[in-house]
Amino acid sequence: MRAAIAAAETSRLATIAVLSKVQVMRSHSVSAEGGTAAVLFREEGDNEESHIYDTVKGSDFLADQDVAERLVKMMPLEIYQLDHWGMPWSRRSDGRIDQRKFGGYSFPRATYAQDKVGFYEMQTLYDTSLKYENIEFYNEWFCTSILHNSNRFAGVTAIEMKSGQFVIFKAPSGIICTGGAGRIYSFSTYAYSSTPDGLDMAYRAGLGIKDMEFVQFHPTGILPSGILITEGARGEGGYLINKSGERFMKKYAPEKLELAPRDVVSRSMIREIQEGRGMKHETGADCLALDLTHLGEEAIKERLAGIREIGIKFSGVDIIRESIQIRPVCHYMMGGIHTNIDGSTEMSGLWAAGEASCNSTHGSNRLGANSTSECLVWGRITGELAARHAANKERPSIIGEQVSQEEKRIYDGIFRGSGEVNPYDIRKTLTDTMDDKAYVFRDEAGLSEGLKRLKNLKGMAWKHVDDQAKEYNTNFCNVMEIDSMLRIAEIVLTGALNRRESRGAHARTDYPGRDDVNFLKHSLAYYSDSEPCMKWHPVTFTRYAPVERKY
Amino acid sequence: MVYESCKGYGSETWIPLNKKTAGNDHQTVHDEGKQNVLLRVLRGDMFKKTKRSFSTFSVPVRRWTTVLDALIYAKEHSDSSIAIRFSCRMASCGSCGMIINGIPRLACYTKISELGYDTVTCEPLPNFPVIRDLVTDFQQFFNHHRHMEPYIENQYPVPREEALSEFKQTPRDIDNYLQFSYCIKCGLCYSACPTVATDTKFPGPQALSQAYRYSADNRDDAEKKRLDIVDNRHGIWRCHFAGSCSAVCPKGVDPALGIQLLRSHLMSISKTPKTLADLRKIDDDKD
Questions:
Q1: What DSSP string runs through B40-78?
Q2: How many domains, chain A?
Q3: A162 and A107 within one domain
C-alpha cells in the first residue's frame, strides 16, 4: 500500500494495480499492535547512531549495516508523512507525537497509536490511496506465478476468486509485498491468510530465498489461539512471572529484564518451563504469565485497551484484575525474498518489500517496532523505483509456454488432482511438525526428523480439490497454499539444519555458541526439483564489529 | 457427521443450552469436555440460481470456540466447499461479518458459549449481494466509502527530509474523531441499516461516519466538500436514526452519532458563518 502511493506520487501516468488474495485493507498488518520505531526526540537524547546500533546488535550482527542505516535515516520522515495523512498517533499533552519503550532499544522510540498501530497504518494508507485515480485495487485475486522473459519481470498470473477466471497481468515492473509465512506453524500470531504464496512464487521463478531459518518467536502469545499480546504491554511496565510469581527475567537479562529482545526473552521462558517453573494452561500446554495488574485500570484502559479486549474475549481474562497466561509464539520471519538495499530482487523489474522480502535489516532477530518501519521505508523506496522503471516502457511480451505450464500446474496438478488424503490433515501435520521440531530451541536430530516427516507428507495423495465449483473456491486456494507451505517449510528446516551455530532467533542446543568464523553469512535457497539448493551470501559491515550480545 | 439440507429461512427455533453452561460458568463446559452444537449454514450461489438452503453440521466446541472456529472445523472435516471469508481471527481485519442467530456479528468475535444456544445459524450479511454461501460482494460498500473522500486534505506542504514537521494535536483534539477511526470496514452496520435496505444509493452508516471522522480531524480542511457530497436526496437526510448501526458495531464505533454530528455541521453552516463546533468551543471557553 505504501509502495502503491509512492508509485502514484512518482508518476501520475503509471497504472498501478494492487492485487491481493484478501480485500486489500484486510492484510495481517492490521494486527500489528505495539509501535513503529523512529528517532524523533534528538533534543531529549535520542540519536540515529543508537537506533542503528540497537538494530545491528539485536540482529546478532547478521544485519547488513548499510541497510539498517538506511532504515533509521528514512524513518522519521515516514512518521511525519503518516501524520500528514491522518494517522492518529498517540500524543503528549503538548500535542507532539509520543513514543514508548520497546524491547532491545536504548531509548523509548516506538511511535504508537494506542495499541492498534498496524491497524491505523493500514487504514491511513488505504484511505489515502483512494485519493489517487491511477491506483486500482483487485480485491480477492489469488496470484499464482511470476512471468518473466530473459530474467526481466513481465507480469503475473492470477485467479479472480469471485469468478474463478484465470488472468494474465502484463507489467514492466512489479513489487512483491505478500507478508510473512507464519502459518507454517500451528501456534502462530499470524492470520489464516498468512501463507507463503508470494515467497513460493518467487522461489519457483528461480529467485533466492534468504535466511529462512530465522523465525522470531514472540514471548507473549495467548492460549489457545496464539493471538498476540503486544510487546508494548511490557514497554508500559508489564512483568513476566513464573509459577511462584517471580520475575524470572532478572536471572537472564539483569539490565533490560522484560525488555530484552524477543529471542532472548523467548529462550529464557522456555528454560523456565524446562526447569519446572512453568504453569499449565487448561489445554495442557506449558506456559508462563504476563502480569499487568500493577499498572492500574486507568493506564490499561488508555494505552492497552485493544489487548484488554483480546484478553477478555479470547482468553477469558481481564488484565486489569489478573495475570494472563502466555507462551512464545511464531510471530515473524526474518527471512524472505533476497533483495539488495533498494529492495531489488535478482530479477530485473521486480522488487520486494516488507516481511516477504529479506533486505537484511533484521539479520537473525528483528527488534519489535522495526517491521512496520521496514514496510514503510521500503514501500516508499520500491514504489518510487518501480514507477520510474515502468515509465515509457511498452507492455512486455509474455512467453506462452510459461502460462501454459502454470495452467498445467494448478489445474491439472491441483484442481483436477485425485487422492484419498484430506489436504487439511496434511496442513495440520505439517504445522504441528514445525511447532515441534523448529521451535525456539532446535537440534540436529529434531530437524532431520522434521525434514523426513515433511518429505513423507509431500509424497502423500493430498493434491486434490473436492469443491469443483468455479466461483469463490476457497478450497482450491487452500490446496494451492498448502502446496507452497510445504516448499517453504522445507527451506526453513534445511536452513536450520545447515546453520550449525546459535545466532539470534536460531538456537541450536547441539551448537550453543555463535560461530562468526563459519556462519557470519546469509543463507540462500534456490529452487530445484528435489530439494532446495543452498548457498551462502556475505554480510555487509560498515562500522560495527561483532561483539557478544548482553542485555 | 450430520449433513442434511433443511429448507426454509429463519424459521428455526433455537434450543437453549442447559442453564449451567449458558451462563459464564465456563468450568462446566470444560468439565464435560467437548460438547457438540449444531451449526447451520445458509448455502447458495449467485451464479446458479438454485434455491438457497441450509447445510447442517455437528461441531465439537470448547468454551473458547468461536463461530469462525466451528465453520473452519466444518470446512476442514465435513464439507470443503463451504465458502467463507476470514483472515485475522482476532476482530481486526473485518472479513468474517455474517448473521449469527439473527444478528450481524463477526464470526471470529462470537464465542459459541456466549450465544447460549446449541444451534448456531449462519447466514450471509443482508444488504450485500451474495457471491456464494456466506461470502458477499463488498464493491458497492467500498465505493460509498471512497465517494466520501476519506482522506486528509489541506494546504500544508508535503513533509520533506530537510523540513520535518508534525501537526500539533492534543489528546483532546484526537478525542473528537478517535472513536470513529476504530472502523474496520466489516460492513455489519451497513447490513443492519434499514435505510440501506430500501435505498442502495444511500451511503450508509460506515461511509457517513468516516466522512465525519475526517471532517472532525483538525488536520483536515475539506469538511465543506464532504458536506456537499452528503447533502442530497439519497444522502445524509435519509437516515431516520434507527440506531441499529451503532448497536451491531463490533469495535465500539457509534456511526449514528457520527451521522447526527455531521448533520449538525451541515445545519450550522447553512445558518451562520460559524460551525457548530466553533460555537461549542466558545461555550467551553466560558466554562
A1: EEEE-BSSS-PPPEEEEEEEEE-TT-BHHHHHHHHHHHT
A2: 3
A3: yes
Closest CA in chain A for residue B186 = A26
Q: Are strands A141-149 and A239-241 parallel, antiparallel or unpaired?
A: unpaired
* Contact state of B151 with A127 under an 8 Å Cβ cutoff: yes
Sequence-ordered strand ranges (E) for A203-308: 209-210, 215-222, 239-241, 279-280, 286-291
pLDDT of residue B278: 60
CA distances (Å), A201 to each of A152, A485, A488, A527, B217, in order?
Answer: 15, 11, 10, 11, 42
* Whether residue A146 is found in the same domain as residue A186: yes
Active-site hit among A234, A331, A338, A366: A234
- Shared domain check, A171 and A22: yes
Same domain, A225 and A200: no
Min Cα–Cα distance to chain B from A267, Å: 26
Measured at the alpha carbon of residue B273, what is the angle toward residues B272 and B274, in degrees to the nearest 5? Answer: 85
Q: Domain check: are A426 and A482 in the same one?
A: yes
Name the active-site residue from A218, A267, A362, A506. Answer: A218
Q: Which residue of A has its CA nearest to B84?
A: A474
Q: What is the pLDDT of residue B18?
A: 37
CB A23 within 8 A of CB A150: no
Query: For chains A and B, what is the number of CB pairs under 8 angstroms?
Result: 167
Assigned C-alpha cell, A219: 514471548
Decide if A523 is inside a domain: no
Residues of chain B with pLDDT under 70: 1-33, 49, 269-287
A268, three cell numbers: 529464557
Sign of the CA dihedral with A71 first, then A73, A78, and A79 last: positive
Residue A314's domain is classified under what CATH number?
Answer: 3.90.700.10
For residue A306, the model assigns a pLDDT of: 86
Q: Is the pLDDT of residue A253 over 70?
A: yes
Chain B positions touching A469 (Cβ under 8 A) are 45, 81, 132
Q: Cα B17 to the chain's mean position, in Å?
A: 28
Residues B222 and B278 in one domain: yes
* B138 bridge partner residues: none
Cβ–Cβ < 8 Å for A345, A338: yes
CA distance A227 to chain B (A): 7
Q: Which domain holds residue B274?
A: 139-286
pLDDT tens track for A355-405:
999 999 999 999 999 999 999 999 999 999 999 999 989 899 999 999 999
What span, in angstroms and rounded, lies between the C-alpha atoms of A100 and A121?
17
Domain span at residue A171?
2-214+334-390
**Rounded to the nearest 5°, which phi and psi values hold at A4?**
-65, -40
Asked if A474 lies within 8 A of B63 by C-beta distance, the reply is: no
Total number of domains constituting chain B = 2
Which chain A residue is nearest to residue B89, measuring alpha carbons? A191
CB–CB contact B146 A30 (8 Å): no
ipTM of the shown complex:
0.95
Q: If you average pLDDT over residues A54-83, what whole number do you get?
A: 97
Task: Mutate one of B43, B65, B93, B206 to test the A interface: name it (highest A CB count within 10 A).
Answer: B93
Cell matching residue A488:
517453504
In DSSP terms, which residues pair with A202 in a beta bridge? none
- Disruptive mutation site among A83, A92, A420, A464 for chain B (greatest number of B CBs within 10 Å): A83
* A218 among known catalytic residues: yes
A508 is catalytic: no
Q: How many CB atoms lie within 10 A of CB B94?
A: 25
Q: What is the DSSP letter of B187?
A: -
- Chain B closest CA to A268's CA: distance in Å? 27
Residue B68: closest C-alpha in chain A: A192
- The answer to whether the Cβ–Cβ distance between A123 and B168 falls below 8 Å is no
pLDDT in tens, A270-306: 999 999 999 999 899 999 999 999 999 999 998 898 8
